[in-house]
Amino acid sequence: MSKTVAGLLYSESHEWVSVDGNIATVGITDFAQHALGNLSYVDMPEVGDEVSKGEEFGAVESVKAASDLYSPVSGRVIETNTELEDAPERLNVDPYANWIIKVEMSDPSELDDLMDEAAYIAFCEKE
Amino acid sequence: MEENLLKTCLYDRHIALGAQMSPFAGYDMPIRYTSIIDEHNAVRNSAGMFDVSHMGEIFVSGPDAEKYVSHVFCNDITDMPSGKVLYGMLLNPRGGVVDDLLVYRDSVPDSYLLVVNAANIGKDFNWLTDHAEGFDVSVRNESGMWGQIALQGPRAEEILSDVLHLDAASSLAFYTWREMQWNGKRLIVSRTGYTGEDGFEFYSSADEIRDIWDTLARAGVVPCGLGCRDTLRFEAGLPLYGHELSDDITPLEAGLGIFVKMDKPEFIGRDALIAQKAAGLTRKLVGIELDDKAVARAGYPVEADGEQVGTVTTGYRSITLDRSICFAMLSKRYADLGTRVGVHIRKKVFPGTVCRKRFYVPHYKK
């Protein structure tokens, strides 16, 4: 059983979102890190890049393979977690304490399409 | 889910251990039990055990066995003593690799065991029977009857003696084997492996293999999946069929010329390789070390001077060396050591330098 955190929103592609005003902080869930296994590299966008809901914005590399990251919201990247450049394994240790990007949302109503914790737990059980 | 996947004789053990399973060569195989990094480090620093029962066992025997194996196998088995193991390839007439394999000279005269890649068992068996015409030999595919465990790592010899009590095998030199008994059944032990470490491989029937696995497990030997088998062999510069070798890649291009004995009077593929050597290679398998830690994966293009000059065949962020490294088949012009190239990873080109393929110097027991 993978861990979830109350108060976060979740995407079907296993990203989590924490919302503060119009800023969305995005990471990957415990389900995702467990399925991927040891992470060896995080490919992040540049600050200032535009991201679109449902579109790929980067990738996480496990030992075996690369998996695309999909943005749960649209907007502009205002910060990336540069600590992950040298320590991608932090995502394995605590995926909720280690975010990947922060996005200034252009359309916060997109958050309505994401799942809350209970809905995400139910979703993972079917995966 | 994949239908009709084959199961090895150790399948129940993998499930009980909670392994992440994945289809490989038609088998449902364990990729990792815990983490690829932990399993990889167990083999480099201590010891680990692998279920490699998916590998194929093809036996060749008969009065013409030596002449026949010599015809289909590019390494030289002439005067091969009983107890010796040789690595080499089956080649097609174009010099491409049908498969890479180990040949065990059996203790029985005129008899050989060919250990082949699981993905190629059917192809190899057909190839071998098709080319047996005119030779007085019998070629038998016994793959389904044999299980196999690889015990690998610096502590392998100690475990072989202390846990399995196979002391007589601890004196084996690298790439030799002997026949022993386990619970009164036939057991083949060879000092071979695919990790760049010292180690042994055990071949026996299903019950005996299960018993050996359980004995090793009770002694705390770390079960290791195919995930780290690949990272280990890659670091040690060992090729994987389907990546560094194929029907369209010759051993010369793959840098495995030392396993091709051109001075043998005859073997399938010899003429093509002589011609390729005379004309000069147009491409070559190399190592590339990237400046950054982005990971080059199989199939990614390699670029230089604004054009594609090759393709990545295997790549990882090396667990032992913590560097991003890969094998790539490169146009000969760019294959010299020290040449700067770029690997196209997703949307960016990451610069790197051509280097030797053997990233990690193997610790074999001579």
What does this structure look like?
The complex is a heterodimer of chains A (127) and B (366). In chain A, strands 1-2-3-9-8-5 form a six-stranded antiparallel sheet. Chain A is globular, with a radius of gyration of 13 Å. In chain A, β2 and β3 form a beta hairpin. Chain A has a single domain, classed as RNA polymerase II/Efflux pump adaptor protein, barrel-sandwich hybrid domain (OB fold (Dihydrolipoamide Acetyltransferase, E2P)). Chain A is of the alpha+beta class. Chain B folds into three domains: 133 residues, Gyrase A, domain 2, CATH 3.30.1360.120; 87 residues, Aminomethyltransferase beta-barrel domains (Alpha-Beta Plaits); 74 residues, Elongation Factor Tu (Ef-tu), domain 3 (Beta Barrel), CATH 2.40.30.110. Helices cover 20% and strands 33% of the residues of chain B. Chain B has a six-stranded mixed sheet, with helices on both faces. In chain B, a hairpin with a 2-residue loop joins β18 and β19. In chain B, α2 packs across α7. The mean pLDDT of chain B is 96.
Helix-strand category of chain B: alpha+beta
- Average pLDDT taken over every residue of chain B: 96
Biggest sheet architecture of chain A = 6 strands, antiparallel
Query: Considering DSSP H and I runs of 4 or more, what fraction of the residues of chain A is helical?
Result: 10-25%
CATH superfamily annotation of chain A: RNA polymerase II/Efflux pump adaptor protein, barrel-sandwich hybrid domain
Structural class assignment of chain A: alpha+beta
Averaged pLDDT of chain A, please? 95
Biggest sheet strand order of chain A reads 1-2-3-9-8-5
Query: Approximately how much beta-strand content do the residues of chain B carry?
Result: 25-35%
Number of domains of chain B: 3
The major pleated sheet of chain B works out as: 6 strands, mixed
Q: How many distinct beta strands of chain A?
A: 9
How many E-type strands of chain B? 19
CATH topology name of the largest domain in chain B, in short, is Gyrase A, domain 2
- Just name the CATH architecture of chain A: Beta Barrel
Order of helices and strands of chain B: HEEHEEHEEEHEEHEEEHEHHEEEEEE
What gross morphology of chain B would you assign?
A: globular
How far apart are the first and last residues' alpha carbons of chain A, in Å?
Answer: 12 Å
What is the overall number of helices of chain B? Answer: 8
Instruction: Give the low-pLDDT segments of chain A.
Output: none
